[in-house]
Design brief:
about 400 residues; alpha+beta; Alpha-Beta Plaits; Ubiquitin-like (UB roll); 3 domains; 4-stranded mixed β-sheet; 4-stranded antiparallel β-sheet; 19 strands; about 35% strand
């Protein structure tokens, strides 16, 4: 099963995501009971009414959250809301994946504010996010996602619309998206986009929930059989579009998996082959998924080498630093590329060769219900050196043993 979160037009908020999950089938009574039982953990807040009802946005039948609250405070520390969420998770019957998700959401929100204001996470004060709304959104989505077994499924995210214009809040007026939104998405793989709508379409709470729910951006829907569609309505109304978040659940029509990678490229024409060979080793050590060099001709008939590196957001800084320091290049091109990969798992087998025992890893991939495997080359290299035997001979021996032991290849 695969879920597509489509916030490409209307953006996302915590209540829109919660409502879309209810609309697609999450048990609303379980969510309401869980939220109301957690009210006691956030002093100074009272939920007077909570319900999910049907509404229409530009003719789209969708679910909306009816929430009436009473607040006796205008400001709270982020750690106070985190503590309330943690106590709620202990009180409720939530899966371990759900607990980790909810805690990660509030941590993301706190850390983003901490970085923006240059204070410790323990000192962060919430203004706009100080309301019990934040607890309702994070806890509600957690309960709903648990009910739908969402944490065990593949979750894809379309580019997230943040709107445009300016936004005014406790720290004054600034261009939209606000700093918190940018900080939250900076540390994820998800992509954002603006629009000519002069309004905030994505909230910090919605952003922090989304980046912890999905880390797989897509530009277009995968090939899939549609099972269900959920529409979660936002509070605002716009003339240009229906302010609803759309979630689509379906079955992918392929064994293949879609993800994205960052591609770094630079042209090098003034370093030796030895340096380039060493460069690939260094790039792999600092986290590159792959690195390769292509030969070509540039302006004025000058021979050149194109260095290409595949990586992700977590390793881009160290890899670009390595490229600059090792090659002396003055610029690096950066693009994001979607790719299709086979599902794969890493297995390990204990092998006895010439009276010696070795642990060997091998990668199993599957397509069209047929499996194949590839032995980890570093293991082959190590065993070859220890036994002083050719790698091809070692590989043949190990392949026979894997086929004998693993039922997939019999």
């Amino acid at each position: 099963m695969v879920f597509v979160i489509d916030s490409h037009i209307a953006g996302i908020s915590g209540d829109m995501l919660l409502c879309s999950l209810v609309d697609i089938g999450a048990d609303k009574n379980k969510i309401i009971q869980g939220i109301t039982s957690s009210e006691k953990f956030l002093e100074g807040s009272t939920i007077k009414k909570i319900d999910f009802t049907k509404t229409k946005k530009h003719g789209i039948n969708s679910t909306t959250l009816v929430l009436e609250i009473e607040e006796n405070t205008q400001e709270r520390k982020g750690v106070d809301i985190k503590q309330a969420i943690t106590k709620s998770l202990e009180y409720l019957t939530i899966s371990e994946k759900g607990k980790k998700f909810a805690e990660a959401c509030i941590d993301t929100l706190i850390i983003s504010e901490s970085k923006i204001h240059g204070v410790s996470p323990e000192s962060v004060h919430f203004h706009e996010a100080s309301s019990i709304d934040t607890l309702v959104d994070i806890l509600g989505v957690t309960i709903a996602a648990d009910d739908l077994s969402l944490f065990d499924e593949e979750i894809l995210s379309m580019p997230v619309c943040v709107g445009g214009g300016t936004v005014s809040f406790s720290h004054g007026t600034m261009t939209n998206p606000a700093s918190a939104i940018l900080e939250i998405f900076k540390n994820s793989s998800l992509e954002i986009c603006g629009s000519n709508v002069k309004s905030e379409l994505t909230t910090p709470t919605g952003a922090c929930i989304l980046v912890n729910l999905s880390n797989t951006p897509i530009e277009y829907y995968p090939t899939m059989k549609i099972e269900e569609i959920g529409y979660g309505a936002g509070e605002k109304n716009f003339d240009e579009f229906a302010n609803v978040l759309k979630i689509v659940r379906g079955i992918k029509k392929t064994d293949l998996k879609e993800d994205s990678v960052i591609v770094l490229e630079t042209n090098i024409d003034d370093v030796s082959g030895e340096i380039l060979g060493n460069l690939i080793e260094k790039l792999m050590k600092v986290g590159a998924k792959d690195a390769f060099i292509s030969h070509g001709i540039t302006k004025k008939g000058r021979p050149s080498n194109l260095v290409s590196v595949l990586c992700d957001d977590d390793t881009i800084d160290e890899i670009t630093h390595t490229l600059f320091s090792e090659t002396g290049t003055l610029g690096i091109r950066i693009t994001r590329s979607n790719r299709i990969v086979l599902p794969r798992t890493i297995k390990e087998i204990k092998i006895n060769i010439d009276g010696k025992s070795f642990d060997v890893k091998y990668k199993v991939s599957t397509v069209n219900n047929k499996s194949s495997f590839k032995i980890e080359f570093d293991d082959l290299k190590e065993i070859s050196g220890i036994l002083n035997k050719p790698i091809k001979e070692i590989e043949s021996l190990i392949r026979k043993e894997i086929v004998r032991e693993d039922i997939k290849f019999e």
